[in-house]
Amino acid sequence: MLSRQLGKNGSTISALGLGCMGMSDYYGPADRKESIATIHAALDAGINLLDTGDFYGMGHNELLLHEALAGRRREDVFIAVKFGALRSPDGNFIGFDGRPEAVKTSLAYTLKRLGTDYIDLYQPARLDPKVPIEETIGAISEMVKAGYVRQIGLSEVGANVIRRAHGIHPISWLQIEYSLLSRSIEDDILPTVRELDIAVTAYGVLSRGLLSGHWSKERSEQAQDFRGHLPRFSGENLDRNLLLVEALRLIAQERSATVAQVAIAWVLSRGNDIVPLIGARRCDRLNEALGALELHLSKDDLARIEAAVPLNAVAGDRYDPGQMAMLDSEKR
């Protein structure tokens, strides 16, 4: 397993992380035993970064990790947790809470559900527009001093907020969507985090399945999960996006690789400060993703990939209008 370092003096983590969200939420029912087997397989393969959120399945994901990590040495696992998303009993998002008292309360419940004394990295899932980021990060900083949190991260925020937060306490990483189909961070956000020596954990590297090579128009019509509400999976947008996937498939076949492996390898190629999060829910999908580590893309490969999937070629936003409005990272 390749490794990445968070900043000059930060923790060393695996070059791929396992995003555990889909095991509890958003992508339809998941098999508990298969989920736990996938977590174990990831750890055995050398992946030590497990990414979760306290609102994934309303605490279900943290409890699942607690069960999966039973008997494992705590120091062998790097657990990253997002917090702050508010949801109603029917699962709808109803806002975000970044108040200092909410930070500490959320952390207390997370520690209990995970069965651990500390969280390796704690981060607000989104920016609370009603609470200055300085107050939110200041509260997490207090938890760092108290020993409950080791490092602080951010998620889906823009360059200005990154600088303000970093001025309160060193930020170890920014978690944000980054893939061949989502490259807006390259304009301002990526240069900013590199200036400040902040790593990037990239989620959505397969664009929620679009770049997996396994998606089709028929499957989209049958999907019963949240992708049915995403613009990139709808109507003419989907038709155009699947054409990009087929262009990428030709390159993958020439390299005896899969579309997913090429998409993941492309993100890995963007720098040693970028860690792709793999949202595998099954061992076979995890094994496929791990194959990206063996796929070394040449300059010619990269040029052909970007010609097949040109910058800004994707059709449709990555979220619906309501969700897009909540992303500080998308504000211009």
List low-pLDDT spans. none
Helix content: 25-40%
Q: Main beta sheet: strand number and arrangement?
A: 8 strands, parallel, barrel
Summed up, the domain count is 1
Give the strand order, joined by hyphens, for the main sheet.
3-4-5-8-9-10-11-12
List how many beta strands DSSP finds.
12
According to CATH, the fold-level topology is: TIM Barrel
Total number of helical segments? 12
Distance between the termini: 37 Å
Strand content: 15-25%
Please tell me what the overall shape is: globular
At the fourth level of CATH, the homologous superfamily is: NADP-dependent oxidoreductase domain
CATH architecture: Alpha-Beta Barrel
Give the C-alpha Rg: 19 Å
Order of helices and strands: EEEHEHEEEHEHEHEHEHHHEHHH
Describe the structure.
The chain has 332 residues and is α/β, with parallel strands linked by helices. 38% of the residues lie in helices and 17% in strands. It has one domain (3-213, 260-296): TIM Barrel, CATH 3.20.20. It has helices at 32-44, 60-68, 100-114, 133-145, 159-168, 189-195, 217-222, 235-254, 259-268, 283-290, 299-308, 321-325; strands spanning 3-5, 12-14, 17-19, 49-53, 78-83, 85-87, 93-96, 119-124, 149-155, 171-177, 199-203, 274-278. The strands form 3 sheets. It has an 8-stranded parallel beta barrel with strand order 3-4-5-8-9-10-11-12, surrounded by 5 helices. It has a two-stranded antiparallel ribbon with strand order 1-2. The radius of gyration is 19 Å and the shape is globular. The model has no long low-confidence stretch (mean pLDDT 92). GO terms for molecular function: pyridoxine 4-dehydrogenase (NADP+) activity. Keywords: Oxidoreductase. Its EC number is 1.1.1.65.
